[in-house]
Amino acid sequence: MARGWESKAVADQIEEGESRQKQSPQAEASPEQRQLKERLGSLQLSKSRLLQQLERATNPAYRNVLLNGLKAVEKEIEEISLQVKL
């Protein structure tokens, strides 16, 4: 009995998903590496949020606070990026 087009497509998707999981570098990464990557993603989101706020800010004191926060986030991103590559 031949399989229908839809069931073959579903079977192919399942096989593709399983092969991706086997090849995923996340599966081989240590818990510390995964935690660093999650922190890096969080910092990148924070950086984009700070940049958006900086574009809209008009008060010089508030802009200064945002710039200081941006510098701190960028410094931490750089430090974590070096650790993730090791």
Distance between the termini: 53 Å
Overall strand count = 0
Largest sheet: none
| Anisotropy-based shape | elongated
Structural class: mainly alpha
Number of helices: 4
Mean pLDDT: 83
* Cα-based radius of gyration, to the nearest Å: 22 Å
Q: What is the H/E order?
A: HHHH
Helix content: over 70%
What proportion strand? under 5%
Question: Uncertain spans, ≥5 residues at pLDDT below 50?
Answer: none
Please provide a brief summary of the model.
The protein is mainly alpha-helical. 87% of the residues lie in helices and 0% in strands.
Topology:
Layout lengths: L4 H19 L1 H4 L2 H26 L3 H26 L1
List keywords for this structure.
mainly alpha, about 90 residues, single chain, 4 helices
Structural commentary:
Helices cover 87% and strands 0% of the residues. It has 86 residues and is mostly helical. It has a domain at 31-86. Helix 3 runs antiparallel to helix 4 (60-85). The mean pLDDT is 83.
